[in-house]
Design the sequence.
């Protein structure tokens, strides 16, 4: 804020500090400037908790309660990407009767875990509303490391989008050489003959749950919430 005004912080505090201001009040003024600066650096997308973490990482010791109070005083709140678009469009003519749900344990309970990297992975598609239209992002997440090991972006969500994400994981050695299980929803990209053929040729066993079962998305949800809400600037791309 001081930089935008073309003045030093010391000059700002001398101007803002009336006679008799307590040390606590002075400290609060300093924190207001720190919070405002970090908030602008995040493109106004960092919330109370994230701002607290960022400030403490910089050596500015402050609690979440204080940051929340200051945000209220400054009348600022984190911006969120609210546009919605359906990315799971099933193809009723697709042949998927041979694809089982391999994310179930011996008792039939969902098990989205893995002990060996590259053996059990999940994928999904998310989207971003930009000034130039929709941008689609396909990802591949390793259930052993919880890391994104493959991704792809395009202006459409046709089958090559998801193939390219898995191809990135393969090309970087993120798929186990003896084969891997890849779980997804029943979107037409994943049930297409083109995708099924590609998986079969790369030692990948497809796995799918039932159509419309939201619980199968849990292992991917946290990443996408963070990606959509915090890591993408709402500016024209």
Sequence:
């Amino acid at each position: 804020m001081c930089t935008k005004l073309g003045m030093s912080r010391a000059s700002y505090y001398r101007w803002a500090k009336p006679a008799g201001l307590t040390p606590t009040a002075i400290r609060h003024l300093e924190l207001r400037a720190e919070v405002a600066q970090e908030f602008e650096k995040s493109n106004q997308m960092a919330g109370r908790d994230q701002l607290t973490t960022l400030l403490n990482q910089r050596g500015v010791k402050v609690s979440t309660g204080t940051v929340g109070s200051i945000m209220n005083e400054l009348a600022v709140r984190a911006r969120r990407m609210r546009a919605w678009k359906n990315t799971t469009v099933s193809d009723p003519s697709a042949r998927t009767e041979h694809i089982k749900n391999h994310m179930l344990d011996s008792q039939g309970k969902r098990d989205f875990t893995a002990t060996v990297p590259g053996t059990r992975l999940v994928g999904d598609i998310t989207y971003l509303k930009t000034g130039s239209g929709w941008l689609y992002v396909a990802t591949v997440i390793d259930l052993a490391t919880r890391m994104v090991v493959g991704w792809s972006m395009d202006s459409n969500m046709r089958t090559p989008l998801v193939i390219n994400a898995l191809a990135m994981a393969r090309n970087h050695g993120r798929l186990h050489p003896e084969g891997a299980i890849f779980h997804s929803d029943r979107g037409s990209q994943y049930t297409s003959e083109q995708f099924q053929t590609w998986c079969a040729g790369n030692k990948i066993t497809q796995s799918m749950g039932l159509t419309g079962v939201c619980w199968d998305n849990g292992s991917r949800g946290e990443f996408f919430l963070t990606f959509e809400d915090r890591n993408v600037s709402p500016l024209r791309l």
Remarks:
- Confidence is low (pLDDT under 50) at residues 233-237.
- The first strand starts at residue 120 and ends at 130.
- The two ends are 26 Å apart (CA to CA).
- Strands lie at 120-130, 133-142, 148-154, 180-184, 204-208.
